[in-house]
Design brief:
Blueprint lengths: L9 E5 L4 H17 L3 E5 L16 E4 L4 E4 L4 H11 L5
Parallel strand pairs: 1-2
Antiparallel strand pairs: 1-3, 3-4
């Protein structure tokens, strides 16, 4: 889910067997191509993955530009609006 040549716009922290995580993944996939986003997914269920100290649950979407975190599943229309304001600075 990430282009290794540049740093990500977003990091999506997910977990196995997490229904809200699946919702966020689908929403991010749709917006990724629409908005040309570079997204990195981190599965917190994997044995060798250690979450940052401020990530205590999943899903969490971290917007790298301003280090804003969105916790839980968000409707795609709301997520699109947040990303337009935070990543692309549009109103």
């Amino acid at each position: 889910m990430v282009d290794s040549t540049s740093s990500p716009d977003l990091i999506l922290y997910t977990s196995d067997n997490c229904a809200p995580c699946l919702i966020m993944k689908k929403s991010i996939e749709r917006l990724k191509s629409e908005m040309a986003l570079n997204v990195q997914e981190v599965n917190l269920s994997e044995r060798n993955v250690q979450a940052p100290a401020d990530i205590r649950m999943a899903p969490v979407l971290r917007i790298m530009k301003n280090d804003q975190k969105i916790v839980g599943a968000v409707k795609i229309i709301d997520l699109r609006n947040i990303l337009l304001r935070q990543v692309f600075k549009q109103c």
